[in-house]
Design brief:
Length: 174
């Protein structure tokens, strides 16, 4: 009876002994895997934070803008514009992507970028883009012009909108 019991316990003890060791091994491997995955992802993001001070050229264009855009933070504007970049190009001569090219958007009639297939809502809007219009569009893309096809949640912070508008104005002047 005694012998039987202890023999039966041996495999059980072996399982208990191996259990935590195996688990620790797995956890370590998972952590290592996670850090190796994170490492390459961090490198492309590194150039994103722009120089805190605008270049002399940018500073000059910024100063020439009407209020409140002349007080815009271009570094933040650039960061905010990163959200638009998946769909829009701001550089001069940039092409249409998911969204129309945005270089020189101010002073342009809504829905008129050559070669872009706009929604009927934007095509028929008929207004000219200025800072105030873009501010309202970005504050509430769906509400400002119902039926448009820009699937973007918008920028809730007034300062972020001011800064991104300043950034678009400065980039459009180049
Ligand atoms: C997910 C893609 C996407 C993102 C992100 C996005 N847009 Fe758009 N945007 C579009 C599309 C698509 C249209 C055209 C909508 C239509 O035809 O109704 C558009 C239209 C516009 C227009 C009107 C252009 C014209 O020619 O009348 C402006 C201005 C604009 N976007 C600015 C922005 C800004 C600024 C941001 C970032 C803060 C942004 N968009 C983010 C897809 C996007």
């Amino acid at each position: 009876m005694m012998i039987r019991t202890s023999l039966a316990l041996i495999p059980l003890m072996a399982v208990v002994a191996c259990g935590p060791a195996a688990q620790t091994g797995e956890t370590k491997t998972a952590t290592e895997a996670a850090s190796t995955e994170l490492a390459p992802a961090a490198s492309p993001a590194a150039p994103a934070p722009a120089a805190p001070r605008p270049s002399p050229e940018d500073a000059k264009i910024l100063a020439s803008l009407p209020t409140p855009y002349n007080e815009g933070d271009l570094a933040n504007g650039r960061r905010q514009f990163a959200k638009c970049r998946s769909c829009h190009v701001i550089e001069k001569g940039g092409d249409n992507r998911v969204g129309p090219a945005l270089h020189g958007i101010f002073g342009r009639t809504a829905g008129t970028a050559a070669g872009f297939a706009y929604s009927p809502a934007l095509k028929g809007a008929g207004f000219v883009w200025d800072g105030g219009k873009l501010d309202r569009w970005l504050a509430d893309p769906k509400g400002f012009l119902p039926g448009n096809r820009m699937t973007f949640i918008g920028l809730k912070q007034e300062k972020d909108r001011r800064d991104v508008i300043a950034y678009i104005k400065v980039e459009s002047a180049k």
